[in-house]
Each structure stands twice: as structure tokens, then as C-alpha cells.
Amino acid sequence: MSPDGTRKEDPRTIVWFDIDNTLYSASTKISQAMGQRIHAYFVTLGLDEDEASELHHSYYTQYGLALRGLTRHHNIDPMDFDRKCDGTLPLDDLIKPDPGLRKLFQDLDRTKVRVWALTNAYKTHAQRVLKILDLEDQIEGLVYCDYQQIGFTCKPEPDYYHNAMKQANISDPSKCYFVDDSQLNVRSAKKLGWGHCVHFCEAGLEIVDGGKTKKLVLDTNTNDPESIRQISDLEELRTLWPEIFV
């Protein structure tokens, strides 16, 4: 603690890991299972199947998360949404611990870096996933979407990243390493000056994004000066970021 009562900033850099479809493969089809549950939730609002699909996609596109649209335009309890959607996912049946992934986290040099998770899910879901993957003890901090907070932010909004840095007590964005399966999220972080951004993309696999199924594809615009490094296996981080591994 500094003389003025503020926390002294840790000199180490931070590695931020997204959770869903990053720490586990999109082949688990968790996004598909989640999409079905969100669609069913929209139907409970009295919408028919087509209306539910369109409103789901519209809210996701406009607000980054369908739930944000629901809380703005419908009288719903966000925690009810969380219990019925994220809370009913059979995660224990869909994902398992990966010793190789755990070893990757263990090999991060903790004298140089801190390791945090950065997710658009609520903390309950994030904690469930980290526990199943046997990574709880490898994550120092968790930044999540606080569904109970009115007007909560999410990736890729700048305020979300600013809040993440505030929570982690780091002021220099260039000291942030970040990997996420959403290119939009990674680009947003890079625009804010996050120094080492990587897009995780399992090209060819399908996910449900905003209620719509899409096939994952790599960005082939190699002439873009703002191009972001892309990987299909987290093990590639050892090569991209050798300076933070032991």
C-alpha cells in the first residue's frame, strides 16, 4: 500500500486469457448448447421461433450480449437468465481437464507475469469452467460481466478493458498480453494499446454466435498493418511469447 492509501502497482505484466472457446475447443459444442438455451429463453417472452431468433441476433449484434438487450427492453431478472442458460449447461459432460493445458499455465514465468481470466460470462459459469479444467489455482484474478450491475459492460467495449485493468491494478496497457477467440475482442484491446494480442481460431469448426451458426475462419488479410497474430493451438503461445515462459 502506498502512502496515499492506494494499492502499489505490481511491476509484472499480465496475461489475459478468454475462457469460452479459448481454454477449451469449440468442438465441444458448448456454444451450440448455450445458443439453444438462450433461444428458448427468448421464446418464453411470448415470441414465435423466428421472432426469437431475430431478436436474439439483434440484441447480440447491438449490445455484445443478448442479455444486455433483454435487461434494457424486457422486465427480466438477469440472474434468472443466468440460472436457466449458463447454469443448466452440462459442462462436466462436455469438457475435461487437459494436462497439456495445465502444463502450459504452469510454465508461465510468474516472476514476470500475472495470469488473469477475462470473460463475457458471469462469474459462476467462469468458475465452473476453470474448476473442471483444473485451472483454478493457475488464475490469479477473474474479470467477468457482473449481471447484477445495472448497465454492465462487456467485450469488446473499451470500458470493459479499462475496468479490467483497474481491477488488476495495472496502468500500462502495453504490458497486457491477451488471447481470445473473438477477433473483434482482440482488435478492440489492441486499439487500446494492449501490447501483445493474439487471436485464437480453430478454423473450420462451427460455433453459435448471437444465435447464428458460423464457421470459424482465419483472417487472410496479411497486408493489414494492424493484422493480429493468429493461432489454432494455445501451445503456439510458447513460440509467440517466449519471453514469459520458463
Automatic annotation (TrEMBL):
The protein's matches in SUPFAM superfamilies, at most eight in alphabetical order, are given as:
HAD-like (SSF56784)
InterPro entries assigned: HAD-like_sf, HAD-SF_hydro_IA, HAD_sf, Pyr-5-nucltdase, SSM1_domain
- Whose protein is this, by species? Suillus discolor
Instruction: List, in alphabetical order, the Gene Ontology terms for molecular function in this entry.
Output: nucleotidase activity
> What is a single Pfam family found in this protein's UniProt entry?
Hydrolase
Q: What is this protein called?
A: Pyrimidine 5-nucleotidase
Any GO BP: pyrimidine nucleobase metabolic process
Please, which domain of life does this record's source organism belong to? Eukaryota
